UniProtKB/TrEMBL annotation:
Organism: marine sediment metagenome
Entry protein name: TauD/TfdA-like domain-containing protein
Length: 256
């Protein structure tokens, strides 16, 4: 795996400025061919358990002993995301905040339904590690994005209201329709397995394009830095991924 300790302050600034200017930054070959092989092995095993239909794995504990889990637990990777968080919010993240990792695997008819879901992430910084990407056909599951169309909101309430307007099923459909018709012009990022893509997930309206249901598209997502972590309201209304997966605000299984 890429040695994140080699990312010095200058590189962090370059990444942040790419994210500001272009909407995203790339760390090329962050996963070695061996890493990719190990990640794909894991995906193959999981996919066969799930009849080759869509699945997602939420939280570090559910993906222990996999390459995805090792990356999510890497202190040097967290350090990079924390530095980026500080650049975009002007504040250091909570000391005990962890990376929230998610694996998504699109395949079959159920995979089609999980595409074009325009959203803002709850966390400021998002890293995307594609491991399986279709290379044929019109739709290869590109990352689609309207980069940096809002700032980090100072109040959780403002964020909740904004998300209520932009995240309902009607507005998602209108957005997807506008893009298909060519009225709206998001950027499209062709994902290359092995590269790591970084973007301001909180600030950028984004989703993935569909891919042919006979093909597989598997990605590791790494969410870090919830600007409204302390807000009880935000915990109640947002973070639906964690809530649905029955995880606490740290993305861990609650101790019973
Ligand atoms: O899989 C992807 O390309 C994006 C998914 C995403 O944005 C998310 O899970 O928050
Ligand atoms: Fe996202």
């Amino acid at each position: 795996m890429f040695d994140f300790k080699t990312v010095d302050a200058q590189v962090v600034c370059r990444l942040a400025s790419d994210m500001d200017k272009n909407g995203y930054a790339v760390l090329p070959n962050a996963l070695s061919p061996e890493d990719l092989q190990s990640a794909r092995h894991y995906i193959n095993d999981q996919a066969s358990l799930r009849d080759n239909e869509y699945f997602a794995v939420h939280g570090i504990e559910a993906m222990e002993d996999s390459l995805f889990g090792s990356l999510g637990a890497s202190p040097a990777f967290r350090q990079l995301l924390a530095e980026l968080y500080e650049i975009v919010t002007g504040e250091a993240p909570a000391i005990d905040e962890r990376i929230f990792p998610v694996i998504r695997c699109l395949e079959g008819q159920t995979g089609l339904k999980e595409s074009h879901f325009y959203h803002f992430d709850a966390t400021a910084v998002t890293a995307l590690a594609p491991v399986v990407i279709p290379v044929e056909g019109e739709h290869c599951g590109d990352l689609i994005m309207f980069p940096n169309i809002r700032n980090i909101r100072s109040s959780a309430i403002y964020n909740i209201v904004e998300k209520a307007i932009l995240h309902n099923s009607m507005s998602k459909k209108i957005c997807a329709f506008g893009v298909r018709r060519g009225w709206l012009h998001p950027i499209r990022i062709k994902l290359v397995p092995g590269n790591l893509y970084l973007f301001w997930g909180y600030r950028s309206l984004h989703c993935n394009d569909q891919c042919d249901p006979t093909m597989r598209r598997a990605t590791g997502l790494y969410h870090f830095g919830n600007p409204h972590r302390e807000s009880i309201l935000a915990r109640k209304f947002l973070g639906s991924n964690k809530r649905k997966a029955k995880l606490d605000e740290n993305g861990l299984r609650p101790v019973v």
